[in-house]
Amino acid sequence: MKIKADLERCVGAGMCALTLPQVFDQSEDDGTVEILDPEPPAELAAAVRRAVQLCPSGALSLDTTDAAESAEPIE
Amino acid sequence: MTEATPRLSIFPLARERTFDPPDELTRRRAEAPLQRMMYGDGHEGWLATGYAESRAILADARFSSRPELMHSALPQRVELRRGPLPPGFFLQMDPPDHTRYRRLLTGQFTVRRMKQLEPRIHDITESRLDAMEREGAPADLVRSFALPIPSLVICEMLGVPYEDREKFQHDSSVILDLEASTDEITAARDDLLAYLGALVAAKRKDPGDDMLSGLTASGELTDAEIAGMGLLLLIAGHETTANMLGLGTFALLTNPRQLAVVRDDPGAVENAVEELLRYLSILHIGPTRTALEDVEIGGTLVRAGESVTLSLGAANRDPERFEGGDTLDVTRSAQGHLSFGHGIHQCLGQQLARVEMRIAYPALLRRFPGLRLAVPPEEVPMRATSAVYGVRRLPVLW
């Protein structure tokens, strides 16, 4: 799993940094997302999906090349 | 959709029970989560009460927030919608204008920044509790606790003198009053804008260490734009959290088992705050969006130019998303609620509001373990006609 962020879409609401601070932070400058760990360990997969789903602006997406992984339900 | 049921005319505001959305909205949600509604100006628009539909509309860039495109669900607000927007009031702008203003502020409201404010918010909370204890019971929790805490915090952040609170608290209550006339609302808004404009001009000459001074230093904004942004931040920054603290305490006092969890289990507080946000959904009506082109939402076609008014209260109780949603359960996962909105306008100050509530509720309940209502619950006066729902006063004893 690889996390991608579209900084043009990001509105700095902070849902990702609130939900999963090990993986997401926000820029001091304009509050947009900073991905601390773009390829987080498998045990965080469910939490990462939740954070991506909570993003209000749709700025976060997941690149799941592993077919088995992408078939997992979100919750 | 078929017309088996009569179209709803005018968004219902009257609540049968203190903490629940109007029954009419609940009925409509069960019938069709997105359905036709007659607007105050005769427009045939839409009412969204379902969770999935509301979330989809808020996330969709084909729906606009601009007031000049919008029809008013309430007859008394029809003229107001057509009035000019104060510069900098980005709540009612679309990209790229919205983006330009919001980006100048987002760095100030990050999760980390708000965490750094915790000690200060804690001090403010404790000093209000000390004052309550000194003055003795009974007290009005709104005046002595719920309103001062967020007002003091937002005043310090923006650089607005707290001594001027009567002015901005009065003006903002008029602006939010759904029964105020267009003239009254315009006068209150202009008054507050003039006040903030003068404050910004003074800060441009003699800047302090605060947000309004910081905006003057950005070199990108006129004084009028900063005043418009300040208007939004000041109103949103104190009315919303104040009403969550007042109404939330009332809800907990009438649900003693839930109250005990918030008071006694520090690990439960984060979740409890999300559940109170979901359950209380204090935005009484809306937001409203207007389709810029034809958009299909869950099989229903909303045509270009049609407005959709949401009920976040009904959406947050949608049984398809929150099982048993009409019950306050501070131990449920309320994550994903729409109380801060969704999409690009999702509340800029939400992380501040969370920190304030996470500190204030348990501090109040621990200081006064015997906290109780001083009047029967049905005698607590409600903000039945304000855009932000809550209690007008909450008389308490301890």
TrEMBL record, chain A:
Domain Divergent 4Fe-4S mono-cluster: 2-62
Gene3D superfamilies xref list: 3.30.70.20
Keywords: 3Fe-4S, Electron transport, Iron, Iron-sulfur, Metal-binding, Transport
Cofactor(s) demanded: [3Fe-4S] cluster
Database matches in InterPro entries: 3Fe4S_ferredoxin, Divergent_4Fe-4S_mono-cluster, Fe-S_cluster_ET
Pfam family, one: Fer4_19
A GO molecular-function annotation: iron ion binding
The UniProt record lists the keyword Metal-binding: yes
Function per UniProt: Ferredoxins are iron-sulfur proteins that transfer electrons in a wide variety of metabolic reactions.
Protein name: Ferredoxin
Organism: Microbispora triticiradicis
Lineage of origin: Bacteria, Bacillati, Actinomycetota, Actinomycetes, Streptosporangiales
UniProtKB/TrEMBL annotation, chain B:
Keywords, sorted A to Z: Heme, Iron, Metal-binding, Monooxygenase, Oxidoreductase
Chain ranges passing through the membrane: none
Pfam families, per the entry: p450 (PF00067)
InterPro entries xref list: Cyt_P450, Cyt_P450_B, Cyt_P450_CS, Cyt_P450_sf
Domain of life the protein comes from: Bacteria
Gene3D superfamilies the UniProt entry points to: Cytochrome P450
Molecular functions (GO terms): heme binding; iron ion binding; monooxygenase activity; oxidoreductase activity, acting on paired donors, with incorporation or reduction of molecular oxygen
Function: Involved in the coupling of aromatic side chains of the heptapeptide of vancomycin.
PANTHER family: CYTOCHROME P450 YJIB-RELATED (PTHR46696:SF1), P450, PUTATIVE (EUROFUNG)-RELATED (PTHR46696)
Designated name of the protein: Cytochrome P450
